[in-house]
Specification:
This protein is 65% helix and 2% strand. By secondary structure, it is an all-alpha fold. It is globular.
């Protein structure tokens, strides 16, 4: 089986635990060598379990304080949902753009990202279980996949919106969440978020590196293309405060998100 077809198989796997297992297996097969990239188109939407119920972002209940067990469960559930979407986003970029003339290193990088997102989901699901909950117990929203659908026909737009805006926003807000979990006495959950934070710097760096490389290969100015794609494909504003240290570590140019 070629990589692109394997990515589609993961996308068509609804059960989260099975999706994690399939991601691990496909990543190991790819890293073993001898696997062709192949060419195929992924489904418009990945398969999803019956739960959680998906709501519009504005209809989501307000999150409770981290000081309560319910509040921490709600946070971890929301993060698990983000990570489940992130698994699919990683495999979708592999399959959706498999027909473009991209170097093998592109697929190496995004297979690694997808595999790490699978581990993130597994850690969060396990922690939810330790707290007497499970993924699917609470509603979730579909905003991340809406961003994927909007950028399905433009690789530069996908790179600009998903890693360089949405995932970079995670770098801005995660340190405060870690502090609040420590303050609530939940060191186990804080440790998981610290692991996610370190890995996500690398994921944003992957997006920044490929965005810059592809822009320059096409003789395009990265800052102008970033601003163009965000203006066309991202509904919202780039809002401070920004975690400059993490964004710098990921190689995101400050001119992308600061200034006019």
């Amino acid at each position: 089986m070629a990589l692109a077809a394997g990515a589609v198989a993961v996308l068509e796997t609804a059960d989260p635990a099975a999706k994690v297992a399939a991601s691990r297996a496909l990543a190991a097969h790819w890293r073993g060598g001898g696997m062709a990239v192949g060419t195929t188109l992924p489904p418009a939407r990945p398969a999803r379990p019956n739960r959680p119920v998906l709501l519009p972002p504005k209809a989501m209940p307000r999150r409770r304080s981290f000081g309560s067990a319910g509040g921490r469960v709600a946070l971890l559930h929301a993060l698990a949902h983000i990570e489940l979407n992130a698994i699919d986003l990683g495999w979708d970029i592999v399959a959706r753009f498999s027909g473009e003339a991209l170097p093998r290193e592109f697929y190496d990088d995004w297979v690694s990202v997808a595999a790490e997102e699978a581990e993130h989901f597994a850690m969060l699901a396990r922690r939810l279980g330790e707290l007497g909950a499970a993924y699917g117990d609470l509603p979730a929203h579909d905003g991340l996949w809406q961003a994927a659908a909007a950028t399905a026909d433009d690789l530069l737009a996908r790179l600009a919106v998903v890693p360089l805006v949405l995932e970079a926003r995670g770098l801005d807000v995660t340190p405060a969440m870690i502090e609040r979990l420590h303050a609530a006495g939940d060191a186990a959950s804080a440790a998981i978020l610290a692991r996610l934070y370190r890995d996500e710097i690398g994921h944003v760096a992957t997006g920044a590196r490929w965005f810059d490389r592809l822009c320059r290969a096409r003789r395009l100015a990265p800052r102008e293309i970033f601003r163009d794609r965000i203006g066309r494909f991202f509904k919202g504003e780039l809002k401070p405060p920004f975690n400059r240290a993490a964004r710098d570590a990921a190689g995101v140019p400050r001119e992308f998100y600061e200034g006019g």
